[in-house]
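Homework-ish question, so no full write-ups if that breaks the rules, but can someone show me the predicted structure for this set?
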Amino acid sequence: MAFRMKKEGVMETIDYSLYYGGFKALNSITMDIPINNITAIIGPSGCGKSSLIRSFNRMNDLISNSRTEGSILVDGEDIYSQDVVRLRKKVGMVFQRPNPFPKSIFANVAYGPRIHGIRDKSKLAAIVESSIRDAALWDEVKDDLGKSAFSLSGGQQQRLCIARALAVEPEVILMDEPASALDPVATLKIEELMEKLKSKYTIVIVTHNMQQAARVSDFTAFLLTDSNRSGNLIEFGKTSDIFTNPVDTRTEDYISGRFG
Amino acid sequence: MWLSCGLTVSIMLVVIGYVIIKGFAFIDLDFFLTPPRGGLSGEGGISSTIVATVYLVITTLVFATPLGVSAGIFLVEYADNIKNKFVQKLIVFARFGVETLAGVPSIIFGLFGYALFVTALHFGFSILSAALAGTCLVIPVIIRTTEEALKAVPNSYREASLAMGAGKWETIWKVVLPSAITGISTGIVLSAGRIVSETAIFYVTLGGSYRTPTSLMSSGRTMALHVYYLAMETRAFDKALATAAVLVILIVLLNLVINTVSRWLSA
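A: Not a homework solution, just the prediction itself:
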């Protein structure tokens, strides 16, 4: 099933399939990710949500026997015809568990700008401050930038990871279940943050939590495995439509909690 | 269990205590500052053997550290991504080789070093020959500890770095290695301890000159070797014990260094 929109998508996924060895993890996905919106990818465990989100910045390349068919375009250009360093600068990622480096808070956020060649100290300091501010963490850490990132709580660490991703000025931020390891209060902070960030960035979030998808996202993609255990895109649309008026009965069954 | 544990500890204490108490009786400042005078009487101190030991340890580590650490990095970070079947076989063979070499008695490396470096390459009995043979001896240790240290670095660090657009080498250099430095340096200090304490391998590569080594091509005598010479070829068993006492203290100090370094680095 194909879900295309007018040419406003920053990321177009066209007939995209992903294989791990002989196993087809994603089957012919076609959908556009709209700019400056939050798009949620939902579906039961093992439906290929993470595989799909990790396709957008080619993290699946790290799995040695993976291969792809079809294409994903970022800014109209195929992700496999552009330099992976440039692609990952444009398409940042936040992971399931907070994974700050064992370095200071400052060094964590400065890591990205440094690898992309920024050496000037005052420039780095400015980037670090604005990124941490954008990640709604500044007031909590502004006096402790030299402290180890591990001294922060789990929720703060995750916001630090978001700041780290923002520091390279991406266009898209991929979030792979960013709140699944956090408590409800920390989760709420991350959700509020996403709401704030979408004016500047395009956000794609994988979530297991349907309430979360309903709360934060503007668009929702529903994935489900077929009889070969391959992930298929069942339905894509405005979150309000998907949750109140789904077209496909399988979407309705999943949303209403009949399976998954 | 208590009994065997107690027995082990007391054996250790008796051995170390005997060496230290007996040995310390003969130690004074002169002992450290004068070279051995040679001959059957075994007179003189151990200054030249300290120099030879330090010289040999440093030279060996200069060869062994870059080689061993690079090999460890390759085996953990790169080897699994290689698709070429022939190279894959080579890697399996190399892993097997490292495992085996780690258990080979040091005299075998000594014989190899004698045949290759001393004789075939005409390096003679020298610090160079001994350091090259010593490198063969400690490289498996360094490779193994480097591998273990790198494997202990969580994959999420690598993913985070790669996802920011860092290259593979950049990720290893800036994120993985700094996180693994504790384990890697433990391996290096462990190797230093090995060089200090080995005898047989240097007996056949370093020669046994009691003169202070002046260059890479000088023969020499490490402290451990000196203990052997004193005990077997002179009447100065007391001096052997004294040298052994210094050696024991040195090894204890090296172990302390390992502990402090790892605690300091992981803090």
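Now go work out the reasoning yourself. Hint: The domain at 2-102+170-255 of chain A is CATH 3.40.50.300 (Rossmann fold).
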